[in-house]
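Fold it.
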Amino acid sequence: MNLDNIRIVLVNTSHPGNIGGVARAMKNMGLTRLCLVEPRQFPHEQAEWRAASAADVLENVVVTATLAEAIDDCQFVVGTSARERRIPWPLLDPRRCAARIDGISEREQVALLFGREDRGLTNDELKLCNLHLNIPTSEDYSSLNLAMAVQIVCYELRMLLVAPQLPAAQDEHWDTPFATRENMERFYAHLEQTLVEIGFLDPAAPRQLMSRLRRLYSRVRLDEMELNILRGILTETRKWVERGRRAGN
């Protein structure tokens, strides 16, 4: 993945605040190349205010009069689309689209197009694309703010870039060995005996209590130290039960 070969292109953006929001979303994920095609208002203080610490992205913005100028040197162009087209076009979600861009961006110029806030990209603009991108949203509310849409796509690109550096699953570097099946069975026997002694479990009517407790402890995966702690609690509980019985006599 080469983020320097990926540009975000906003077409005919109407609100300058959205431009600033997009700049901030891009910088969060390590992208810096922003191109504006015939923005309604830019430069603008609202864009600068919304950009926060991403002022450098705005300072390096490329502004063009036409979409053709913005993407003429690109070999791979992706257009965001929120609706079905009469003529089917290759269509991917952000995650699969990022995977497609991953290798391409190493050797080619890539453009990600985002359309107007109220109606997106036109059919003619989408025809310039190699691929269409759709962000799956809830049918109850499918409207996405422009900066949010850019953030989602940039996040998927970022994840592919940093995946090799992310920490491994916790299980791989746990500080204590996980309990063996043999020791877990001893624990369950100890637990059942203790529950019977304190009157919580009636052997004549167990009501699947032990099965549910097995499911609970299997779900969390106890390590040997945690198992020893629990068995210590059970041992002390049984001692208190025995003391109570002796005191009652």
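The beta strands are 6-11, 33-37, 62-64, 76-80, 91-92, 110-114, 131-133.
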